[in-house]
Amino acid sequence: MSRFETYIKDHYQTQKNFALKIDSSISAISKWIRGVAFPSPEHIRKIWSLTKGEIGPMYWYVEWPSDVRLKNESHKLLLEKKSRSRNRIRN
């Protein structure tokens, strides 16, 4: 789980609550967490302000790419494991 996702869960419980605070959509928050999209400079400023600096601009350029890559690699490994499991059942 990324630091951004953890912050949302710890302080706002849901992506919806966080989205309302920064005037964004739930789908945008979800895309940022999954690494499908990158927040606008305006949203980065709002997140930085709302989190009191815990999730600042450098997060998005330094940590976020690593968080997303690790999450995607873990998801890929899980899918490969499921695929191997299904193949064993078929054989």
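Second entry:
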Amino acid sequence: MTISPDTKKMIIVIPLLLIGAYFAYTQFFAADTSNPDGLVTDESAGILGQDILLMVDRLQGIAIDKSVFSGVLLTHLQDLSSTIIPESKGKPNPFAPIAIVKSK
């Protein structure tokens, strides 16, 4: 009995796809069982607060050079916006059914 090359490829590809799908599912879609109630514990709240304080501390050290706002490139910018032409408004309620006018 001879197995065609396409069948051999499928025998290899299908298990690889199944393994890849299982890996993707466990990494991205499986529920996190470390905290089943979804409650934040005091330990994790302290860690979150500490991260925010460290970020604020790093942001305090940032200084902005004010000469950027008076530079030649910024002062020579042109406003290329176009004026918006007012148009007539539609129905007061766009979801209301369209009234059919019967002619006499």
